[in-house]
Amino acid sequence: MPKKPLQKARENRSTDKKDLTFHPYHITPETAHTAVLLLESEEDEILCQTLRAITKFSAQDTRNREILFHLDAIKYILPHIQHKALNVQRFALKALAQLCQLPTAPEVVLADAENVRTVAALLGKMEDVYVLEFASLILAEVTREPLGCDQLVATNVISTLFNRMKSSADPDVQKNCLQTISNLLDDPASASEVTMNPHCTWPPILALMKNKYVAIQHAAIKTVGQLLGRFKDEHIQKSFKASTGISDFCDILETYDFRDIHSLILDVIRDYVETEDNAAHAHRAGALQRLLAYLEIAPVELKPRALAALAKMTLTESGRKALFETGADLVFCHLLLGSDVELLADAALAAGNMARLAEAAVRMCDAGVVEALASILADERAAWFDVRINALKALGELTRATPRAATALVAPKTFSAVVNVNKKYKETPVEAQRLAVQCYINLLDYHETMRALLTPHFIHELLNIVQRIDIKLKILACSALSVLMSEDPGRQLFTSKGGEKVVSENLKVEHLGLRTALCNLILASVTAAGADVYHGIGTLHYMVTNRQARYAVSAWEAALESIFKHNPSAKFAYTGRLDVTDFTHDGFYVQKRISDRFLPLKHIVRDARRPFKDPVFVINFGNSKHASEPSHERSSSDSKVDSNLRNYLDNLLSWFGEPESSCKGSKSMQYTEVDESEYEVRYREKCHEVSTTLKSRAEQLAQFVVEQMCGLTEERDCSMPSVDLHLADLMLDLNTSVLPLGHVRCGGPLERALLYKALADRVAVPCALCRGGGGAWCEVAVPESDPDEDEIIPGPALRGYPAGLLRVNYIVDLERGRLVRAGGADAQRVCGVTCSQRYVAGKTPDECYCDALFYV
């Protein structure tokens, strides 16, 4: 068959050498500049043929368009887009549309706003199909830029876009108009102009989703998604609910011919059901049941998208209720038990969210969801993100929601999966470790499961977690330990596993949240033995001297007080005061002189060397509950009963006419402390009362102490040199610097105040022990009758007062054996000047600044 002439010419051009000769209307990269120059011709035929050749050249390759763009072809094409010759106008619009597809080309067009107005006018007034196609394509390209959106909105062409989109017979015009509307919706400043336009209605856009052209379907679905994503636009949301939109989505999913756009529809549904109202509307419209049915028959590649749409509904309360009514929670459980790995992450997330609904949580537990999640978590082949992480989240939500899930999780087989997360912490992400500890906290909300976790191994594991690097993980572990400390066995296990040392190490980390959690743990866990440990390892001293932490951490002071409560010796040393609610117990000791740190008693005994310099006074009545407790404070040298001190107490009890059994124990008082903030009239019958005879007892006790220490007469020398000599003799006689208080028969202000406080705690006299710049003294809280009050029955001397309202009102003068009213001149002589507390443990100031006058 002979070859055609044109075919021969093409073959000859391909075999010959490169022809650099300009051929009219056939453009090559080398002759493109000449073609651009021809656009300045005034002959319509030349313009038409040149523009036609340029469109062919542009269509061949993107590089050809770049060549034309760099030759400023747009500048030469723009004058011809409204040429009087239709063909010239068509090819000019087509060439401009092709060049506008380059990334930076729209900027050149948008440099003059008149260009957009011209193209928009052509779209509105022209009916030529080619002009409409290319004009709409240009608008679709230039509105990719925010400036293009602004210029297009200013032309008032939005109504035209909707009309062309709805009624144009050309599918390209419809697609381009849809794309332009989509671009406007992407721009925050222009989107409201689109939604407020009266031509913006749902039926035309929804109809285009079922168009026979896939490109139009994609554009329509994208536009629908953008409109539905405007959740705060009440008009859009309300009008969509009134339309058939949600039913149209389901119709498309049930139509096999539209399978190519099923994934896009599922994504739109997933985003739509994000809010409470939309989730409820989807359920009312029947979309939820149809979506569950589609999940069963969907192709394998689309099942994850369908499940994602259902999982998104679990984020809202109305969505969870709707899913529960349709049994979707059981579907999630079934998927967790299945073998489809692609569905496990979303199924676990959905199950965890459904657990926020109590009824669903119970039903899922009956279906074995806890065991299924635990098996997923234990599967080392599964990915941590997001399969195993979501499984942990679901377990956390389930254990928080229902005790049935907690009971199922603490079973040995299932609980090992959670424990291994932190046991193999080097192989697990820190997010998983945090979620596992949160599961522990949820399990501790129930008494039964907390009992199951109250084991030495579990507490040891939590203490190991506290020692890791992650701060948030440390805080969570502290929270779990704090809950366990509500039980006595938990506090004992905490001390046996070295919990105090772990707390002490972490307190040095300067993190406000961690320090608060650790202080709360101290509040929950501290015992007498634990307080001794904190004292022995230096934690107590660190907490007292760290002034910055005491100011910044709100729970720091409370934690310090909780330790002081179990260690009154340290409290008196560091604060210089034991209040009426603080009681001395056997083993309580006071140093005559304190340096920069208050040491445990066993350290003092161990380091004592002859000649002994400073004595330490110890109280041991032998009847305190502390006498049987192991303590770091006591040693073999001070654990014996102080017989002299015991005799003092026996004499006082017989003197006051009370049987010994009534005052055993340091807290066996005749008065009960009632917090003032909680005191009301209805508590009067519940609290014990004290009478004004208590003042007489306090005075008699003062006379007794003075008599035992030195006597009221001047027969014995009780000056400070005599006291120091007496104490030195005692230390030599006993061969120790630790002196039982009962052996001291010649004492100064400190020795007398200490003896008064020790005896007052055991004969029901509310007494405070103080130490300051002027020495040491005691303060008492005793009721007294009003001298102006008329005599009634019972008389004022026997009138009862609520013990909880007692406040310090007298100072004990232990030189003369009397009570003096607080605040008076006599009281100031007893207490000395108000001065820096040089007898309090801690760094003392170099200079002393007194606030009161000296009295002679």
Summarize the structure.
By secondary structure, the protein is mainly alpha-helical. 58% of the residues lie in helices and 4% in strands. Among the domains are: 201-325, Leucine-rich Repeat Variant; 327-453, Leucine-rich Repeat Variant (Alpha Horseshoe), CATH 1.25.10.10; 579-671 and 685-785 and 793-831, no CATH class.
What can you tell me about this protein's structure?
With 856 residues, the chain is mainly alpha-helical. Among the domains are: 201-325, Leucine-rich Repeat Variant, CATH 1.25.10; 327-453, Leucine-rich Repeat Variant (Alpha Horseshoe), CATH 1.25.10; 579-671 and 685-785 and 793-831, no CATH class. Helices cover 58% and strands 4% of the residues. The protein has 47 helices and ten strands. The protein has a five-stranded antiparallel β-sheet, with helices on both faces. Strands 2-3-5 form a three-stranded mixed β-sheet. A two-stranded antiparallel sheet has the order 4-8. A hairpin with a 4-residue loop joins strand 9 and strand 10. Helix 3 (44-60) crosses helix 4 (62-70) and helix 27 crosses helix 28. The longest helix is centred in the middle third of the chain and has 18 residues, at 384-401.
